[in-house]
């Protein structure tokens, strides 16, 4: 496939890799022909003239006979030096000739970056520039891409007529399109004659002009971008052409609805200032145009008169692009009674107010879900380490309550996260890999994925046959599609993540694009301002570091994001400069090539389906924000030439937008648009601006279990008055079955919603953002009026305190808060334990025993034990499921120690057993139960307990500390348990 080069041979020192869509072909100027002629003359002189001159003046460089010993005995003379110099010149000529052949072969084949001729740096650079200049005016200078502009084209099912499908997939159905080439070529010739006959000087600025889409020439296909560049002088004006013609009926009966989807033979009305020889004036002024074409243009012109799309010049509407056909979205009004769906948007269109929450996180559901999951894992880790005496000292049962920007960021993550979408994506991809492995089929190379209303569309690098059920073919052989309902049938598959390099770039027409960075055939370049580029890089890095559809990977950051490490210390790595990056990647590239060869794999994709799938072939993704020098860019291009096979991806920033070796070129604008015109993409970019980046990192730093003893205190954020005078007005029992005391039951219709809303507020005494409340109750989104109606109904149900203060209030940040007169048993449990261990119970043994006993009596089971199916899904984001068992275990251990001080072993056993009902997996409780049972001096009972523990542990065996304790308390426990079993 021909290789794409930059417009100027002097501006690029390395060829570019193939990309998935034809790029524009620049019209050749007189200067280009002059450069090509001079390059031809230079090559002719260097390749032919130099050897002829040497042969005539110095003769053939090799001697007639081979007598090395005789040569050594000869005297060294001037003739000897001349002979050596002549041989060196011949050698330089041979090296330059090899460079020309290598560059010519690469340019004509279009495969990867040219090979390097040993020791020929300057010579190969000169050869590259001369070959580029020579081929600049030839057809071989164009580059072609396997159709990224078709990403997510509209789906009409598999019943689409063959011809229509062929016209929409230019890379693979060129033969069908060539059938129309003759008629279209004749029309082009007639249009050219009409242009010459009428004369451009006779045209007026307001004249109506038309263009007929041309048939493909070889592998080049017409596009609105190229038409705008040829006839309007700027490819970005393709929007004006689109606006003039969208939704107007074409001669074949179809309509232009997507800017990147045009067909040969279609007619395009052009803006009044369009110029060019292949434009057609109104047919009355171009009599050479055939009567049939005249009639078509007349009919088409009438469809635009007086319509909204007949206005030229403005192009104010947003360009439409090829995205998957949207299926009707579920009714949000019933979302609360359905399963949580895929959420392409964090909020529906009706929910216009963000209440100050950062929009960047609200609009990134997959990124938010990854960050929220990683943050929850980090907080649980901190809790467990504190409970089991880990590093950092005693952290307490409560994570720190974020404030300011960090609190807004956390709320935005809660609102925007789509964990169900992540789960479906992960299961679908792993399920596909498992199905293909079962059929002994390799994984296809996937360039990108689209998520549209829960449906998943994969674009393949090349046709790979029929996908395994329930996957279906999309609009052509390079698209595989999985409907959302079918994705729900997949269970967790024990297979490696097949495409861990997928990362969200943005949305387009309600569909979300994920680009597979490790599959790009070369470098992905990103241009734009430094701040805008950094926001894209940070978003990509954060999602790759925390996403839920990857197993292992390495992400190397250069030139940005030094503070991102807390998100995933095991994945993220920073390098100081480009030199360190090149040294690292050269070594890894060699290592991966050798490993693939030794394993007998063609690429990492085949390695991921083998026996070692869980330990090999994790991707390495390089994010380089700093623009490399010309020499470094060439080196990176050479490394990236084979990177997609090796599972290595490169995203590189550039100021100029012209980066050697860039396979796909993108630009981020100040308005948040991610543009790739030559790929047919215009996305609403997914960003993580600097302010949100700092806020997210702060959340992770505060939750770090290794922070040390200066971490948060052990005091709960909300303590209640546990005296008789502190009796609450409203008391909710959450630990066990849900029960509310002090309020009338609401009407049956809204009772479930009100109870769920109150439970969320009770678990967050610091306040709940209205958007967080609504997204928890209605995961699919809800309108502002419905949310406000619920809040008012909740306020009315809770009522007011005796002084007239509403029990549901609003703080200074707009968050909903409960009055101190509304408490839960979890609040009381925390307060009793705190008072017993850090308050009055410290100095009074009797008070401590009473408080701990009262606290343990409150424990009736797990949190919200009887919650209805399908509700309270927001609890998956909470860590209360880890906090409550630890709190109950701590209470049981404290009460057991209280009784053991007086040698009341049976009382201690009763306290431990009560705690085990809520925290059955806490090793500390079992160990303390062993000690208390041993204190009874009853070997048979201790042996029975040991046997019970062995049975509970199953194949995993006893934990090391428990096993060591049994060795101390009951040395013969193994034989005793075996005999009892």
UniProtKB/TrEMBL annotation:
The keyword Transmembrane applies. Residues 824-970 form the Bacterial transcriptional activator domain. InterPro entries: Bact_Kbp, BTAD, LysM_dom_sf, TPR-like_helical_dom_sf. Residues 7-23 have a biased composition (Low complexity). The chain crosses the membrane at residues 36-60, 80-104, 125-144. Residues 1-23, 272-354 are annotated as: Disordered. Residues 304-317 have a biased composition (Gly residues). Keywords: Membrane, Transmembrane, Transmembrane helix, Two-component regulatory system. GO terms for biological process: phosphorelay signal transduction system. The keyword Transmembrane applies. It comes from the Bacteria. It holds the Pfam family BTAD. This is Bacterial transcriptional activator domain-containing protein. It comes from Streptomyces calvus.
């Amino acid at each position: 496939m021909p290789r794409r080069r930059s417009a100027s041979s002097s501006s690029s020192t390395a060829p570019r890799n193939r990309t998935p869509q034809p790029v524009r072909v620049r019209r050749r100027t007189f200067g280009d022909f002059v450069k090509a002629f001079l390059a031809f003359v230079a090559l002719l002189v260097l390749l032919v003239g130099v050897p002829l001159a040497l042969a005539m003046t110095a003769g053939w460089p090799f001697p007639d006979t081979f007598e090395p010993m005789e040569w050594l005995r000869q005297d060294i003379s001037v003739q000897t030096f001349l002979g050596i110099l002549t041989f060196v010149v011949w050698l330089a000529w041979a090296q330059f000739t090899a460079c020309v052949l290598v560059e010519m072969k690469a340019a004509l084949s279009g495969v990867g970056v040219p090979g390097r001729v040993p020791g020929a740096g300057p010579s190969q650079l000169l050869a590259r520039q001369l070959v580029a200049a020579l081929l600049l005016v030839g057809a071989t200078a164009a580059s072609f891409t396997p159709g990224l502009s078709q990403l997510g084209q509209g789906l009409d099912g598999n019943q689409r007529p063959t011809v229509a499908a062929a016209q929409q997939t230019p890379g693979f159905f060129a033969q069908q399109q060539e059938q129309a080439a003759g008629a279209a070529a004749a029309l082009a010739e007639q249009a050219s004659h009409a242009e010459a006959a009428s004369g451009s000087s006779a045209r007026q600025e307001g004249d109506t002009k038309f263009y007929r889409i041309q048939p493909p020439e070889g592998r080049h296909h017409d596009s609105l971008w190229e038409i705008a560049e040829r006839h309007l002088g700027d490819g970005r004006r393709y929007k004006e052409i689109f606006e003039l013609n969208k939704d107007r009926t074409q001669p074949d009966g179809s309509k232009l609805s997507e800017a990147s989807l045009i067909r040969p033979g279609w007619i395009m009305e052009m803006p009044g200032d369009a110029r060019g020889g292949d434009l057609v004036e109104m047919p009355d002024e171009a009599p050479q145009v055939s009567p049939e074409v005249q009639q078509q243009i007349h009919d088409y012109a009438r469809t635009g008169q007086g319509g909204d799309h007949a206005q030229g010049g403005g192009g104010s509407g947003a360009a439409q692009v090829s995205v998957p056909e949207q299926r009707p979205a579920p009714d949000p009004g019933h979302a609360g009674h359905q399963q949580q769906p895929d959420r392409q948007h964090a909020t529906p269109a009706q929910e216009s107010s963000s209440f100050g929450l950062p929009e960047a996180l609200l609009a990134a559901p997959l990124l938010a879900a990854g960050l929220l999951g990683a943050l929850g894992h980090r907080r649980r880790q901190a809790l467990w380490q504190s409970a089991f005496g880990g590093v950092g000292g005693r952290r307490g049962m409560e994570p720190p309550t974020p404030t300011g920007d960090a609190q807004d960021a956390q709320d935005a993550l809660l609102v925007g996260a789509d964990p169900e979408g992540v789960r479906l994506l992960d299961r679908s991809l792993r399920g596909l890999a498992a199905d293909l492995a079962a059929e002994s089929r390799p994984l296809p190379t996937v360039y990108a994925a689209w998520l549209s209303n829960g449906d998943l569309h994969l674009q393949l690098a090349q046709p790979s046959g029929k996908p395994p059920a329930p996957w279906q073919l999309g609009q052509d052989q390079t698209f595989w599609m999985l409907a959302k309902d079918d994705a729900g049938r997949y269970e967790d598959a024990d297979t490696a993540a097949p495409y861990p390099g997928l990362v969200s770039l943005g949305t387009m027409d309600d569909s979300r694009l994920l680009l597979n960075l490790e599959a790009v055939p070369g470098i992905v370049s990103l241009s734009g301002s430094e701040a805008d580029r950094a926001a894209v890089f940070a978003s990509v890095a954060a999602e790759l570091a925390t996403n839920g559809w990857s197993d292992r990977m390495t992400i190397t950051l250069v030139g940005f994001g030094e503070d991102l490490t807390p998100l995933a210390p095991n994945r993220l790595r920073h390098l100081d400069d480009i030199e360190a990056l090149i040294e690292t990647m050269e070594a890894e590239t060699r290592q991966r090539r050798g490993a693939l060869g030794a394993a007998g794999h063609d690429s990492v994709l085949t390695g991921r389906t083998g026996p070692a799938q869980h330990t090999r072939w994790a991707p390495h993704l390089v994010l380089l924000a700093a623009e490399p020098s010309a020499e470094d860019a060439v080196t990176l291009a050479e490394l990236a030439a084979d990177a997609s096979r090796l599972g290595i991806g490169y995203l590189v920033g550039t100021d100029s937008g012209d980066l050697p070796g860039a396979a796909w070129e993108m630009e981020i604008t100040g308005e948040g648009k991610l543009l790739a015109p030559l790929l047919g993409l215009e996305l609403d970019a997914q960003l993580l601006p600097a302010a949100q980046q700092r806020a997210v990192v702060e959340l992770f730093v505060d939750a770090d279990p290794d922070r040390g003893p200066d971490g948060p205190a052990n005091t709960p954020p909300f303590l209640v008055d546990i005296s008789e005078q502190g009796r609450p007005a409203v008391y909710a029992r959450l630990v066990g079955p849900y029960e509310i005391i002090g309020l009338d039951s609401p009407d049956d219709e809204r009772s479930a919603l009100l109870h769920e809303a109150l439970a969320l507020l009770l678990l967050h005494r610091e306040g709940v953002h209205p958007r967080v409340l609504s997204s928890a109750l209605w995961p699919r989104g809800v309108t502002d009026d419905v949310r406000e109606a619920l809040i008012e109904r909740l306020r009315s149900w809770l009522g007011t305190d005796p002084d007239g203060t509403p029990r549901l209030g609003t703080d200074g940040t707009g968050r909903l808060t409960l009055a101190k007169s509304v408490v839960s048993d979890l609040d009381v449990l925390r307060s009793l334990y705190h008072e017993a261990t850090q308050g009055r119970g410290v100095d009074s043994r009797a008070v401590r025993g009473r408080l701990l006993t009262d606290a343990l009596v409150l424990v009736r089971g797990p949190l919200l034990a009887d919650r209805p199916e399908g509700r309270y899904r927001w609890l998956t984001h909470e860590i209360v499921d880890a906090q409550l068992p630890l709190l109950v275990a701590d209470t049981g251990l404290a009460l057991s120690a209280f009784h053991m001080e007086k040698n009341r072993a049976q009382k201690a056993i009763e306290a431990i057993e009560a705690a085990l009902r809520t925290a059955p997996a806490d090793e500390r409780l079992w160990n303390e139960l062993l000690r208390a049972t041993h204190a009874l001096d009853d070997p048979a009972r201790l042996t029975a307990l040991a046997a019970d523990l062995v049975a509970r542990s199953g194949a995993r065996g006893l934990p090391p500390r428990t096993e060591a304790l049994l060795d101390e308390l009951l040395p013969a426990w193994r034989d005793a348990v075996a005999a009892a079993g």
